Amino acid sequence: MGLLDTARLWAVFAAAFAVAGLCLGPLERLAGRPMPVSESPETVRAAVGAGAVFEVLGGYASLAADFAWIKSYVDWTRKDIPACTASMELAVALDPHMKQFWRDAAAIVAFDYPHWKLAGGGNGGELSEALRLLKARYGRDGIKFADRGLKIFPDDESLLIQKASIAMANLDDYATAEECYAKMAAKKDAPVYILRRYAALLMRNGKFAEAVKAMERMYPEIPEDSPLKATARRQLEEARRLMEKSKL
């Protein structure tokens, strides 16, 4: 690459970064209100000027999205919730087909924000209850982020697993987790680890007959010399026992 081409490339980078910065200003002001993570890309575009900036970016939108995501990482290191949210919203608006943005944003909102919000406040039982409420609040927001990604990638395992993890960890919502794993387990080539987690959720939710079916499907796929084989056999036997007991 010649010096002229290199200079042009850096000029594009600088322009994209500058445009990303222009977008982030209005979005950060927008993020001053409580948790705008449920905003749609259309709303975000309107917030930065009826989508005019997006049209100017043209084919460089994904590059600007990368800069916005880098900005979100800087905000993450500073534990700045409004700025981090605004940066992530801009990144997914600029490049909604980057699955990593949706998945990681959902995790940051659900798992990091509650602890940032609570830092330095409360003690003992009050602290524990406050954290529980914050985890539930931001867990719901994290799931909204994952759901927006799933509208674009309905069968993506990473997003479904992330949503299930948030549902369980933040909301004790094992029904939603089961729904996520049911979608993955419905695939003919569903891997053993998906079927095993799905069976465990079915057991947890008292659906022993369905759990047995999932385990019977999974069991033959486990190699005979695998340490998991014996464990899976015991779990299958226990599931069958509970299934029969539930019929009494």
How would you portray this structure in words?
With 248 residues, this protein is an all-alpha fold. The protein has twelve helices and no strands. The protein has helices at residues 3-30, 41-47, 52-57, 61-77, 81-94, 99-118, 124-152, 157-171, 174-185, 192-204, 208-218, 228-247. The longest helix is centred in the middle third of the chain and has 29 residues, at 124-152. The protein is globular, with a radius of gyration of 23 Å. The N and C termini lie far apart (77 Å).
What topology emerges from the helices and strands here?
Elements: H1 3-30, H2 41-47, H3 52-57, H4 61-77, H5 81-94, H6 99-118, H7 124-152, H8 157-171, H9 174-185, H10 192-204, H11 208-218, H12 228-247
Q: Show unreliable segments.
A: 30-40, 42-52
Provide mean pLDDT, rounded.
Answer: 83
Order of helices and strands: HHHHHHHHHHHH
Gross geometry: globular
Q: How many beta strands in the DSSP annotation?
A: 0
Total of helices:
12
Task: Classify the beta-strand content into a percent band.
Answer: under 5%
Distance N to C terminus: 77 Å
Features of the shown structure:
mainly alpha
Summarize the structure.
This protein is mainly α. The chain has 12 helices and no strands.
